[in-house]
Amino acid sequence: MEEKKGPGPGKTLLGAAARFIKGERPEALKGLKGVWLVISSAGVVCVLLTLVLGLCGEAGWAGLCAGCAVALLLLSNLWFRERVTNPILGLGDTARRIADGSYGSMAEKLRDDEIGRFVDAFNDMSVKIGEAGRTQSEFISSVSHELRTPLTAITGWSETLMYDEAIQGDSRRGVEIISAEAGRLTGMVEELLEFTRIRDGRFTLNLREVELELLLEELAFTYGELLKHDGIELIYEQPEEPLLPVTGDPARLKQVLLNILDNAAKYGRRGRRIELIGRNEGEYVKVQVRDHGPGFAEEDLPHVKERFYKGRGKERGSGIGLAVCDEIVTRHRGRLTVGNCEDGGALVTVELPVKTQ
Hints:
Elements: H1 9-22, H2 31-55, H3 59-99, H4 114-162, H5 169-199, E1 208-210, H6 212-228, E2 233-237, E3 246-248, H7 250-267, E4 273-281, E5 284-291, H8 321-331, E6 335-340, E7 346-353
Helix pairs in contact: 2-3, 3-4, 4-5, 5-8, 6-7, 7-8
């Protein structure tokens, strides 16, 4: 009985090629990995043919195969840059925007391949991060607004009770504690509301020319008197030359400096002294606040400007004061840096660009 013969190798190869062209490909040959496998295999074949033909003395054919191998190498590099490197670089740019706070930023999907599916997953993640950020801001804003009314009542009644001379001893001390804690909570609520305004884009600056020297003198006088009651001395060093004017929002700049001074009084209380310094330095006006307390812990220094980072200190707070200050200074095209002095104490520096004509 005669055996039935299968198709020859030539027909098998032609059939496989036809199916490949139609898109009927094995999983290993699909997408970017398939294209890369075909190109790299073709390059290997050209190199092997070059070697074989060279050994057989076919210099012309060997040179042709070598040229094909070089051409495949160049084309594969161009293809890799266009199909893989450039999309990944675009994803990197989008990731940096998200890291800088632009939650919900979307990367452009160029093709429906492995990179394209990765872009889909990346965009889905970005959308969910944006939704989570909005939910967080809405929750913080809602809670903060709800806390305002009872805090106002507690503060008002505690201040009223302070004027009642019939309340003495431990009762008066309790009222003083209630008043102080209510004031602290009110400050935290205001910081949280400021944070949500920044996150929601409702934060605005009323820019005009600001004489920082006058602002520093006002702060040194008014805040210095308040610190005296806590046994802390605020020393303001008059600049050797008049401070140059800057462009800024005076209310926001005052908010920044008051927050820094408040932190210096809170965390550097043991040093009993705070120094406020202002001077011109190139194209910037530099304002420094230094306390003589324990300073920042080394492990906290890289994170103290991050939102909701509280550090390892004993003092309590919302953890967003310096984050808000950093945002305000950045929007003034300035820089806020924190560090420690060599002989002890924390040093916070605000640099603001000089007003240009």
